[in-house]
Write a structure and sequence with these properties.
single chain; alpha/beta; two-stranded antiparallel sheet; 7 strands
Length: 97
């Protein structure tokens, strides 16, 4: 069996739970998922969150799992490496669009 080296996971509709009603909901990562993902990181597995969210918003969830993990955000328009969060890919729309 091959060793797992990386787990890539979406946030909204996948990893996050919604607490409260639709008008005043707060999205969180369940304790069971946090425990499992932190255990994976402790074994040397990269946990990469891939999200349509902005960098700062997605980073909050990434750091809740473990500091220094790579991140894909802004619907794939930005990708960062782990600590010190070096941006390795960024695709911005031109002002013409």
């Amino acid at each position: 069996m091959q060793e797992i080296k990386l787990i890539a996971i979406d946030l909204d509709g996948t990893l996050l739970n919604t607490i409260g009603d639709l008008l005043s909901s707060e999205k969180t990562i369940s304790e069971a998922n946090l425990t499992a993902l932190r255990a994976a990181v402790a074994r040397g597995v990269y946990v990469v969150l891939a999200s349509g969210r902005s960098y700062s918003n997605a980073m909050d969830f990434s750091e809740a799992i473990a500091k220094g993990q790579p991140l894909i955000c802004a619907n794939g328009a930005m990708a960062t490496l782990s600590d010190p969060y070096e941006c390795v890919y960024c695709e911005c729309l031109s002002k013409d669009k």
